[in-house]
Amino acid sequence: MTTPQAPGAQPLNVLFLCTHNSARSILAEALLNAMGQGRFHAYSAGSSPRAQQQPNPLGLQVLQAAGIATEGLHSKSWDAFAGPDAPQMDLIITVCDNAAGEVCPLWPGHPATAHWSYPDPSAGEGSDAEKREAFRQTLHAIKRRLELFVSLPADKLHHTLLQTSARQLAST
After folding, report:
1. CB 136 within 8 Å of CB 62
2. Nearest-CA neighbor of 43 among 2, 84, 1, 77?
3. DSSP secondary structure code for residue 113 in this structure
4. Is 98:120 a contact under the CB 8 Å cutoff?
5. DSSP conformation letters of 58-102
6. Are 30 and 127 in contact (CB under 8 A)?
7. What DSSP element (H or E) covers 128?
8. Rounded to whole angstroms, how far apart are CA atoms 16 and 26?
9. 105 - beta bridge partners?
C-alpha cells in the first residue's frame, strides 16, 4: 500500500550508496523507482566504483526476473551527486557497512541520512544458482524495508522527520 502524495508535491530524491555501486545500491535504486509510484526518485552511487564498473549481471537478472526495469542502471561515483549541478537529495541511505564508515562528500542541501545494512550478495562463493539466490535474498530484504518506507505517511517524510523515520526502518 502506498500513501498518496500531496498534489503538487515534488518527489523525494533518495540516493543509495555502497562501495562499488554494482549490487545492493543498484537493487535499491531500481526497486524504489518501481515501487515509489512517483513519490520518490531513486539514484545510486558508489564511494569507489572500479574503472569500467558495471552493475553485477546477476543483480540485473534478479531484477528482471522480478519484473523490475533495469534500463539506465549504471555504476557511478558518489562525486556525481556532490556537485552544484547534481539533483539535490532529500535522503541518503548507505546499504553497505564499508560505505557507511567512509567520509562522505558534503551533500548539497544537507539531506537526511540513514544506514540500512545488507550483506554483499556478490561476495559469496558457490554455483551460479547459489550466487543468484544470494542476490534474490538481498533483493527481497531490500524490498521488505522499502515497502515500509513507501507506506510511511507524508508527515513522516517531511524533512524534519525523514532522518528519524529512515533510521527507524534500519531495525526492521
Report:
1. yes
2. 77
3. E
4. no
5. HHHHHHHHTT---TT----BGGGGTSTTSPPPSEEEE-SHHHHTS
6. no
7. helix 128-150
8. 8
9. none
Residue written as grid cell 552544484: 84
Set of cell numbers at residue 159: 524533512
Q: Return the domain boundaries, the chain.
A: 12-164
CA distance 111 to 92: 7
Instruction: Quote the pTM value.
Output: 0.89
Task: Find cell 531495525 and name the residue.
Answer: 171
Q: Quick one: CA torsion of 32, 55, 97, 49, rounded to 10 degrees? A: -120
Over residues 119-166, the pLDDT tens digits come to: 999 987 899 999 999 999 999 999 999 999 999 998 888 876 887 888
In this structure, which amino acid lies at residue 151? Answer: S
List all residues 6 or more positions away from 6 whose beta carbon is below 8 Å from its beta carbon. 154
Supply the CATH classification number for the domain 12-164: 3.40.50.2300
Cell numbers linked to 24: 545492493
